[in-house]
Design brief:
By secondary structure, the chain is an alpha/beta fold. It contains 7 helices and 9 strands; from the N terminus they run E-E-H-H-E-H-E-H-E-H-E-H-E-H-E-E. Helix 6 runs parallel beside helix 7. The longest helix has 14 residues. The site of S-adenosylmethionine (SAM) has 21 residues, from helix 2.
């Protein structure tokens, strides 16, 4: 593992929340990655708030210790890093955009976490076999385009068939997300619940969580 990068407690461009250290886009370590031409292109250019609301949900509805956990559309990877720290989950972080992974690795480093497996893969290409053995699949802010609704619905169906115990997708309230909720609610192979959560840390945020379990 690379030497640990130290982030000073009074660093104005770092945020501390939920036992994590997060770097703002203007932080010098983040800017260094941008200069190295790692420029995420599908909205993975920062940490999105819904990931904190999934963390809060999981704090109350814990996955089993050391269980396998997939962070879908991981971006900078904080959700998986947190689940690894908190529950020692075995993390696979999946994203279509390989330029997000250097930011994930930076955050894993500053949070003292290693062994996060990264996979460059589109949701539509994740096969049933890729999902077998995972207890939880979770994705924050990943249902933001109309075309992602059927893609994520089919992924959830494959996950249920693969034996995944719980799938959580969080969103601040976009239409494609609610269309996904409707599809899951109508599907007899699964039970879909919507949980509203709010937080004030690190800033005020609201999200609905679609929580899907096998029927
Ligand atoms: C809005 S960002 C959210 C990132 C992260 N989950 C967070 O909360 O900070 C959406 C992420 O989904 C990824 N993504 C978008 N479409 C995808 C697809 N079809 N397959 C896999 N990843 C995708 C993007 O590259 C991006 O990193």
């Amino acid at each position: 593992m690379a030497d640990k990068i130290k982030i000073a407690r009074d660093d104005k461009r770092a945020i501390r929340t939920r036992s994590l250290v997060l770097l703002k886009p203007a932080h010098k370590e983040v800017r260094k990655l941008k200069r190295d031409a790692h420029v995420p292109s599908i909205h993975g250019h920062k940490i999105w708030n819904s990931s904190f609301l999934i963390m809060d949900y999981l704090s109350r509805n814990k996955p089993p210790k050391k269980s396998r956990f997939m962070d879908l559309g991981c971006g900078w990877g904080l959700l998986g890093i947190w689940a690894k720290k908190k529950f020692e989950c075995k993390i696979t972080a999946v994203d279509a955009d390989e330029d997000v992974f250097p930011y994930l690795e930076l955050h894993a480093n500053i949070n003292g976490v290693n062994n996060i497996k990264t996979r460059k893969k589109r949701f539509e290409k994740l096969k049933k076999a890729d999902l077998e053995g995972f207890h939880t699949l979770a994705g924050a802010d990943i249902c933001f385009w109309d075309e992602l609704t059927p893609v994520l619905y089919k992924l959830i169906r494959r996950a249920i068939k693969a034996g995944v115990k719980r799938i959580i997708i969080a969103d601040p309230g976009r239409d494609p997300f609610y269309q996904l909720v409707e599809l899951c609610e109508k599907d007899k192979t699964m039970v879909a619940e919507v949980v509203e959560r709010t937080t004030t840390r690190p800033k005020v945020a609201v999200a609905d969580l679609l929580v899907v379990t096998p029927a």
